[in-house]
Amino acid sequence: MHVEPVGWSASGALRVLDQTRLPSEERWLELDTLEGVLEAIRALRVRGAPAIGIAAAMGLSAVLRSRLAAAPRDEALALVRETADALAGARPTAVNLRWAMERMRRCAEGARGDGPALLAALRAEAQAVWDEDRAMCRAIAEHGQALMRPGIRVLTHCNTGALATGGIGTALGIVYRAAERGLAPHVWVDETRPLWQGARLTAWELLRAGIAHSVLPDSAAATLMAEGKVDVVLVGADRIARNGDVANKVGTFPLAVLARHHGVPFYSVAPSTTLDLATPSGAAIRIEHRPAAEVSSPFGVAVAPAESPVFNPAFDVTPAVLVTGYVTERGIVHPPFEEQA
């Protein structure tokens, strides 16, 4: 039912499903250079906050295989720090990337021995990051069943399934588990402009899984809610501030406003690694802005004058006051969020 977007190649390189080619082509990349891993993260060939952290951890190990083979300890540690810093800066908003690189640095510093010993420790740690995320996804899915009922109609945004994580997904993982239980959920899939992660990726996953779904323009969500056709909104998160503000794929904030207006429960679904206690509120979250061509010429097709200026934030911030609750691997947390963080 579920595809794994990252893995190890036979040679120890990072293996990534190129999500920019979906749904028309399933193309796998084998990456063993820093430039290649950075490009894959920046170009969204691998995407989704948990999957980015996993790919970066595995990529760090893959990139340093040859360079650590004969390196003395001090040189090896310097290489790890340098590579981890470069990867941590690939995308600024998702906290999982920074968290994973800090974890890999600590692993290297705590390992005994020279380059080869550090490399073995790094590979084992990267595998642990992946395995733990897989387990967290399953736990999130189980806790989320408290929100499910037979025939439930779920509205989701962007992609929060297996393609975005190391397991069955976060918000979409709850839907998968509901389907396994025979609850026959129906998913309303926001197409998610400007890169259509909903239409291209979520719909692709749901089709493979045999789960009923319909793709809709982002702007049609209000009509669906007004007609009483949405029971719950489930979205992911790239970073959750200490006060509960949620940074997620742009378009999430208006969904939360619509849900509040129509009395529809709105839940943010993410592992605890997405919670950033060092960030007091959403106002302190740095929002990534992406190239103008993603809006004016998506996938090479001109839809706006090339000379027209473009505003293209990759994320927006949903205030905690609009969030009904947060589903994590530890359970469902309801406001006031900050007192429970």
Proportion of β residues? Answer: 15-25%
The SS-based structural class is: alpha/beta
Q: Provide mean pLDDT, rounded.
A: 93
CATH class membership of the largest domain: Alpha Beta
**Estimated radius of gyration:** 20 Å
CATH topology value of the largest domain = Rossmann fold
- Strand arrangement within the widest β-sheet reads 6-5-4-7-10-13-14
Name the poorly predicted regions.
none
Count up the domains.
Answer: 2
Number of strands: 14
Shape: globular
Through-space gap between termini: 34 Å
CATH architectural group of the largest domain: 3-Layer(aba) Sandwich
Report the CATH superfamily of the largest domain: Translation initiation factor eif-2b, domain 2
Summed up, the helix count is 11
The description of the largest β-sheet is:
7 strands, mixed
Q: Write down the secondary-structure element order.
A: EEEHHHHHHEHEHEHEEEHEEHEEE
The level of helicity is: 25-40%
